[in-house]
Known about the structure:
Elements: H1 4-8, H2 11-24, H3 30-41, H4 47-58, H5 64-87, E1 92-93, E2 96-97, H6 99-103, H7 105-126, H8 129-151, H9 160-186, H10 190-217, H11 220-223, H12 229-232, H13 238-246, H14 249-261, H15 267-276, H16 279-297, H17 305-319
Antiparallel strand pairs: 1-2
Helix pairs in contact: 2-5, 3-7, 4-5, 4-9, 4-17, 5-7, 5-8, 5-9, 7-8, 8-9, 9-10, 10-16, 13-14, 13-16, 14-15, 16-17
Amino acid sequence: MQPQAFYRVVADDFTAVDDIIxxxxxxxxxxxxxxxxxxxxxxxxxxxxxxxxxxxKALGRHGDDLRLLAATIEFLHTATLLHDDVVDMSGMxxxxxxxxxxxxxxxxxxxxxxxxxxxxxxxxxxxxxxVMQILSRATRVIxxxxxxxxxKIRDAxxxxxxxxxxxxxxxxxxxxxxxxxxxxxxxxxxEQTEALRTFGDHLGVAFQLVDDLLDYRGDAETLGKNVGDxxxxxxxxxxxxxxxREGSAEQAxxxxxxxxxxxxxxxxxxxxxxxxxxxxxxxxxxxxxxAARAIACLDALPPGEYRDALxxxxxxxxxxxx
Length: 322
């Protein structure tokens, strides 16, 4: 499936959002601009600003404030990426070196702080208290999700329930904030606002489930990151949790040891174990279920090309290979 179709309906807005991002990156400190420009120009799917634009337009809103909100969300997301790469000691993202690999941890953290701060200035410019409420809560929940994940590193007793709590915080929350804030900005009905909030949550969960699946089914070149990163860091993701719960005693012991010790010495054995235990199929099915539930929420929107694009985007989120 070509992702271009759901970008095409908001192509002009997307270009305008990019222009806003470039303007807001201006700083009197050259290194801030250099690192900010480096990470934002890496591109990525820009799904979160895309969600803002599609949801707002599906509800009949067209204008600069929607574009500013989309850019604000991208700044929040980019700030979390800078911080995540430092926390995870990652060396590669989107097929190229991370900012911390090039400039070091301290500048990466501080430029992440700059992007967070700038996003809040942009929120003030929007002048919507409901939007500020949604986005300020989202930044807190994301931080809590990251800390919860950190506290579970090398913890082989992590349950599926705790895993879901982690991904709802660290990933799904910003998807939810994107769709929810778009509804709030537009002044949507209570029913539509709740439907879009839930849509974002379900889509975000599906997206992260596929990410965790691709850690075992992908290859580094296609993914643009190091395959097995989560395993190397000792993060208990769903394929591993399921294998420990449902796999053979031997498979469970292999995974438990890998989580507790970290490292990639047994990556191929782990890949074989999670596949044989049915963990990858289980994770893929969970992702499809969440995507289907997300799509069902879109019944609250008026029919049209923007709603169709949101359906396509949800299908792409689980069909993707990177």
